[in-house]
From TrEMBL:
<protein>
    <submittedName>
        <fullName>Metal-dependent hydrolase</fullName>
    </submittedName>
</protein>
<keyword id="KW-0378">Hydrolase</keyword>
<keyword id="KW-0812">Transmembrane</keyword>
<feature type="transmembrane region" description="Helical">
    <location>
        <begin position="31"/>
        <end position="57"/>
    </location>
</feature>
<feature type="transmembrane region" description="Helical">
    <location>
        <begin position="129"/>
        <end position="162"/>
    </location>
</feature>
<keyword id="KW-1133">Transmembrane helix</keyword>
<feature type="transmembrane region" description="Helical">
    <location>
        <begin position="240"/>
        <end position="260"/>
    </location>
</feature>
<feature type="transmembrane region" description="Helical">
    <location>
        <begin position="104"/>
        <end position="122"/>
    </location>
</feature>
<dbReference type="Pfam" id="PF04307">
    <property type="entry name" value="YdjM"/>
</dbReference>
<feature type="transmembrane region" description="Helical">
    <location>
        <begin position="78"/>
        <end position="98"/>
    </location>
</feature>
<feature type="transmembrane region" description="Helical">
    <location>
        <begin position="168"/>
        <end position="185"/>
    </location>
</feature>
<dbReference type="InterPro" id="IPR007404">
    <property type="entry name" value="YdjM-like"/>
</dbReference>
<dbReference type="GO" id="GO:0016787">
    <property type="term" value="F:hydrolase activity"/>
</dbReference>
<keyword id="KW-0472">Membrane</keyword>
Length: 264
């Protein structure tokens, strides 16, 4: 077996090692291998596989405990302290710059409100604000550099946390939007294959969720019908074992197809 085949084997071994960490991530990464190895004209690359894995996590930005939501919400603690510091700054300004009277009382009240809000922020509310800040920074960066794809990505990050789990981020329309963002990125960056890696990775998440009892409403809001093949019971021991089995089987299938296309 040639060097290229050995590289595919090493890639699949790495991807399958990620199964226990996150089935969606593993399936997305394996899908990236499939895109690079089976789609004509698409270069096989580690960056493309990583993009597919990232895209496979994107639909769950609507869930507070999702892996990607926690990573992109890295500013969560900073958001809390930002409100506290804003309250302290407003209190200082009110004390030194405003004369005693209604305006000063209003200033101190607003400062207290900011401080209490910052200290009270926990969990979901802080995470959502952190994601809004992350998304807003992406939007501004996209506008500054003239990258529409980056601004659209920022809007997606801002909006997704405020939606119900498995609602609009788990639709064919969101998949099309994500693929279009990849297409625009390809136009700006000149990296052929971004749209294919991104779109396939995103779609792999919806397909995987369609194997659960809840299923996926692919065509919201046009249809409330939930497409599902209830094989997996999420959170159960049997469901976890089945997830691992599906990931392993999918990985081996892709590996076989990729090797079958190679010329020795």
């Amino acid at each position: 077996m040639g060097g290229r085949a050995a590289a595919y084997l090493r890639a699949l071994a790495f991807l399958l090692s990620k199964v226990r960490g996150s089935s969606h991530l593993a399936i997305g990464l394996i899908t990236g291998v499939a895109v690079g190895g089976l789609v004509a004209g698409i270069p096989f690359s580690a960056a493309g596989i990583a993009l597919a894995g990232f895209s496979a996590l994107a639909p769950d930005l609507d869930h507070p405990n999702s892996r990607l939501s926690k990573r992109l919400g890295f500013t969560q603690q900073y958001v809390r302290w930002a409100f506290v510091l804003a309250g302290l700054g407003l209190a200082g300004y009110t004390h030194t710059m405003l004369p005693p009277g209604p305006d000063q009382r209003m200033g101190f009240t607003a400062a207290l409100a900011f401080g209490l809000l910052g200290m009270a922020m926990q969990g979901g509310s802080t995470r959502k604000l952190a994601l809004v800040f992350t998304g807003a920074a992406s939007v501004l960066a996209g506008l500054y550099f003239g990258f529409l794809w980056l601004s659209l990505l920022g809007i997606f990050i801002c909006v997704a946390p405020f939606t119900t789990h498995r609602s609009w981020t788990h639709t064919i329309w969101a998949t099309i939007l994500w693929t279009y963002i990849g297409y625009l990125a390809n136009q700006n960056l000149g990296w052929h294959g971004i749209a294919q890696y991104a779109g396939a990775g995103y779609a792999s998440h919806l397909v995987a969720d369609s194997l659960t009892k809840s299923g996926v409403r692919w065509f919201l809001p046009l249809s409330e019908y939930s497409f599902k093949l209830p094989l997996i019971s999420t959170g159960s021991a049997a469901g976890n074992v089945l997830e691992i089995g599906i990931c392993l089987g999918y990985g081996l299938l892709v590996l076989g197809l990729v090797i079958g296309r190679m010329q020795f």
